[in-house]
């Protein structure tokens, strides 16, 4: 397991370096002068030159990349061109909204999908299975922003159960904050839960046809006991992959939902930074999201090794 983990850790480091090089290169070739964007088109050339020197824009590309990457390793993402505050501070403020929102959406999708996927697989070909497949098809097809507006219309405008948007802050109390995030989390969770139900169903159907499952049934275990003791652990292997990818998507893909509900989260920060050409903020947030995706995939690989010991034994023998 140690050799397996070290190999995955080395792969993570190489991928992070490659991703940082790609993001830096893409941001550098974009048209526009950050100093010109900050000071405006009427700024004097000597003022522009002084700002470029202050921002380090006159340094060679290799030096600028090193300053950027070494700063990030120390927690310094630079100063926002638009807000004139550290980007780390902006990201920290927005993560207190986007991270709980993504976790809530992932928890909701998992709580919905796993039992429904097992139910569909254990009733393969019967009406519960057919009904769930049809429902998941609808869930995948519905755009989450349209579903979000429908939730606002029903639960905020008509029933007045939940707020239609905005965020009161965690200092206002746990329940008001959760109420503000509940509708966005449901809107994000619906398509993810629909996908996860189908993955769980397919994985469980494959497991149900394995020899060890038939042997367990022949020894007198009922279907529920067989699934709980032997089937679920093996069926979760592909599901964990999708869950890891879903968390990365939920954290990085909240731009539309956060704008629908007027949530000052990470997705809305990216949207505003792109509109304002705040490239240093865009670069930092994208790198953070990419690093999150890579780290989640690393954790998924480690979880694979814990669930299925055959995997790291096979890799360790190579």
TrEMBL record:
Source superkingdom: Bacteria
Entry's Gene Ontology molecular function annotations: dipeptide transmembrane transporter activity
The ABC transmembrane type-1 domain, residue ranges: 95-300
Residue spans crossing the bilayer: 9-30, 97-121, 142-162, 174-197, 235-257, 284-307
Main location: membrane
Pfam family, one: BPD_transp_1_N
Keyword set includes Ribonucleoprotein: no
PROSITE patterns: ABC_TM1
One GO term describing the cellular component: plasma membrane
CDD domains, per database record: TM_PBP2
Swiss-Prot/TrEMBL keywords: Cell membrane, Membrane, Transmembrane, Transmembrane helix, Transport
Cellular localization per UniProt: Cell membrane
SUPFAM superfamilies: MetI-like (SSF161098)
Membrane topology field: Multi-pass membrane protein
PANTHER family according to UniProt: DIPEPTIDE TRANSPORT SYSTEM PERMEASE PROTEIN DPPB-RELATED
Family: Belongs to the binding-protein-dependent transport system permease family.
Protein name: Peptide/nickel transport system permease protein
Organism: Cohaesibacter marisflavi
């Amino acid at each position: 397991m140690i050799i397996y983990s070290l190999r995955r850790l080395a792969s993570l480091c190489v991928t992070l370096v490659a991703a940082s090089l790609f993001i830096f290169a893409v941001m550098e070739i974009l048209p526009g002068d950050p100093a010109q964007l900050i000071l405006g088109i009427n700024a004097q050339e000597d003022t522009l030159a002084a700002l470029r020197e202050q921002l380090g824009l006159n340094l060679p590309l290799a030096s600028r990349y090193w300053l950027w990457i070494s700063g990030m390793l120390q927690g310094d993402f630079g100063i926002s061109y638009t807000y004139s505050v550290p980007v780390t501070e902006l990201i920290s403020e927005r993560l207190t909204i986007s991270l709980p929102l993504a976790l809530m959406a992932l928890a909701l999708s998992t709580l919905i999908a796993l039992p429904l996927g097992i139910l569909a697989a254990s009733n393969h070909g019967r009406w519960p299975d057919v009904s769930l497949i049809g429902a998941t098809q609808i869930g995948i097809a519905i755009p989450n922003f349209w579903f979000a507006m429908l939730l606002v219309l029903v639960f905020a405008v008509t029933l007045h159960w939940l707020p239609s948007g905005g965020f009161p802050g965690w200092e206002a109390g746990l329940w008001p904050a959760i109420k503000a995030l509940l509708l966005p989390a449901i809107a994000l969770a619906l398509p993810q839960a629909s996908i996860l139900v189908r993955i769980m169903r397919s994985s469980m159907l494959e497991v149900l046809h394995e020899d060890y499952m038939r042997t367990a049934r022949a020894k007198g275990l009922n279907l529920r006991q067989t699934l709980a003791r032997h089937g679920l652990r093996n069926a979760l292997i592909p599901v964990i992959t999708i869950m890891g990818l879903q968390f990365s998507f939920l954290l990085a893909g909240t731009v539309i939902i956060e704008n629908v509900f007027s949530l000052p989260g990470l997705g809305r920060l990216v949207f505003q930074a792109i509109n304002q050409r705040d490239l240093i903020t865009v670069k930092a947030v994208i790198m953070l999201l990419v690093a999150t995706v890579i780290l989640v995939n690393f954790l998924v690989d480690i979880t694979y090794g814990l669930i299925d010991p055959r995997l790291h034994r096979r890799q360790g023998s190579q």
